[in-house]
Write a structure and sequence with these properties.
45% of the residues lie in helices and 12% in strands. By secondary structure, it is α/β, with parallel strands linked by helices. Keywords: Carbohydrate metabolism, Hydrolase, Magnesium, Metal-binding.
């Protein structure tokens, strides 16, 4: 059996552009004001782990509590006022369902952020499983743990899963989990290393075509 695992930010919704702007222009300058940290360094990571990473690597100028508060406020604005759903995504899910292909949403975001997206875009009953990195006591992307956990929740071997990812850390995580990786190229991430992906696509239509093609091949 094949399963398809979708990342949320940058794939299901185009929120990554807004998150990149927020991190580049607001949160990173406030957190590590004396260091020029690239957004790609932490893309795909759980936001709480981003703080821990910045603290360990560079030292931080704001508290963990303030960091979390700023992220939560940004999430509400991004998911309810700015982000849009991937074109044709409901149709893609319907076609996968018609083929009896199980699906999961696999995100580094916490469940309350995921819930905003599911409600905003009428996706509340659309996935067989909804997985947050908060569900496991392990490292987030680029480590493979969250993808391996999601495959287990679906009851499908990781090697029989297709993961759709946009970030370098997400692509690496899915590849380390031995999944077939469809990398969705978005402008927000620029020229990141996508070499670990099996397929690279540039548009919603191409994403849909290749996901359906790969699930047949599996």
């Amino acid at each position: 059996m094949t399963a398809v695992l979708f990342d949320m930010d940058g794939v299901v919704v185009n929120s990554e552009d807004f998150w990149v702007d927020f991190q580049r222009e607001e949160i990173l300058p406030a957190t590590v004001p004396d260091t020029d940290v690239s957004v790609t360094e932490t893309s795909g990571m759980n936001f709480r782990e981003i703080y821990d990473y910045l603290e360990a690597e560079y030292g931080t100028a704001i508290s963990r509590e303030e960091f979390i508060q700023r992220f939560n406020a940004a999430a509400e604005e991004i998911y309810t006022e700015r982000a849009a759903l991937l074109d044709g995504f409901h149709d893609l899910l319907d076609e996968l369902d018609a083929r009896d292909v199980p699906t999961a949403l696999v995100s580094s975001s916490p469940h309350d952020w995921i819930g905003m997206v599911l409600e905003q875009f009428d996706l509340e009953d659309s996935f067989d499983r909804v997985i947050s990195a908060d569900d496991i006591d392990a490292a987030s992307k680029p480590e493979p743990d969250v993808f391996e956990y999601a495959a287990g929740e679906l009851g499908v071997p990781a090697a029989d899963c297709v993961a759709v990812e946009d970030s370098a850390n997400g692509i690496t995580a899915a590849a380390r989990a031995d999944m077939t990786v469809v990398a969705y190229r978005i402008e927000a991430h620029g020229d990141i290393d996508r070499s670990a992906a099996d397929v690279i696509v540039d548009s919603p239509a191409a994403l849909r075509e290749r996901v359906l093609e790969v699930t047949v091949q599996q």
